[in-house]
Amino acid sequence: MKVLGICASNRKKGNSSIVLNELLRPIRDAGFEIELLHLGELKILPCRGCFGCSGTYHCILNDDLELVKEKIDAADAIALASPCYYLSTPSPIKAIMDRLASWAINKTASGAHKKYGVAVSVAGGAPIEFSLQRTYTSLFLGLFNCEITGQLTIGHTFTKGEILLAPRKLQAVAQLGENLLHSLEAGRCIKSPQTACEDKITCPSCLADVFQIHEDGRMVCPVCGEELKRTEKETEQVFNRFTMAGALEHRAHIIDNVIGGMLASDEINRRLKAYWETDVLPQNDYPIDRDLTGVTDLADWDNAAEETLKAAIPDELRGVIRKVMSKRLLQDGERHMTKELARRYLPKF
After folding, report:
1. Could you say which DSSP state residue 292 is in?
2. Is the distance from CB of 44 to CB of 64 less than 8 angstroms?
3. Does the global pTM surpass 0.90?
4. How far apart are CA 3 and CA 176, in angstroms?
5. Cα torsion at 17, 22, 25, 27 (round to 10°)?
6. 10 and which of 40, 180, 187, 338 could share a cystine (Cβ 3.0–4.6 Å)?
7. Is residue 219 a contact partner of residue 213, using CB atoms and an 8 Å limit?
8. What ranges make up the beta strands (E) of the chain?
9. What confidence tens digit (pLDDT) does each residue in 125-178 have?
10. 255-294 burial, b if ≥16 CB within 10 A, otherwise e?
11. Angle between helix 133-143 and helix 91-109 axes, rounded to 10 deg
């Protein structure tokens, strides 16, 4: 089994590096394979929102993201050590999630084997100064298919190496590492007792510590979607985005957005052109007819068109994209899909 240790700090041999070393020490001593990834040594660009990865799950930007992706994919567990910058994690953490989300959601939706994850953070101030830290570390681990065994944030640790003034805190970090080790050995997620966060309520599933309070009084974790029921009974899991079912639902929302954008693409382009040329908003809403009933039987695809679709669209999306393209073909008064028409109707983002 392989454990990937990720250090999200730009400081070399600072507090996060020390924390990660102590977090991994029990696992290393037990003889597990460990690989380290220092994000501060990598080039990670922000997402451009171009959807260039939609057909291949491979980002078109030329940096070190594919290396990160390969390391995450090969790991059985992830140990994340992160500093807190402005209330939360450094920007590369968010950039990695933004750019690998499509790939990661598809992996979970396809039933990939669950990993285990643990996160320890260091912050310079009091809890109010790192109030969103656990949100992003939980989101990172959950997105990459980890059942989260423990979380810990250590405050008042600002100066490089300052964590060494508090060996008791490092002992708590080592206990989190022990717990991750036990989870790997047992083949199931064993939640660590090290889950408290400055007397705040934490999500029993992902261990984040923020909640959305609905008008009817329900408290829902915005990270994993778990609803917190404050009763003596265990939390009833209504929805969790980090399960296979949750990932499938998330992917269905994305596909629905793609369908809408494809079916309304001509109108969108007209309105975009008019808006930027005249600086005037359109006056009327445009309802999108998403009904795809029967379109496959009415449109005829030749082999070249089928190959064009196959080369551009991944397997799990191909069926519905084919229906949308067929509907657009029929709307334009055509019935035979050629290679040239397929290129025209393929989704463009």
Report:
1. -
2. yes
3. no
4. 14
5. -90
6. 40
7. yes
8. 2-7, 33-38, 77-83, 115-122, 146-154, 212-213, 219-220, 227-228, 300-301, 336-337
9. 888 888 889 999 999 999 999 999 999 999 888 888 888 888 888 899 999 999
10. eeebbebbbbeeeeeeeeeeeeeeeeeeeeeeeeeeeeee
11. 30
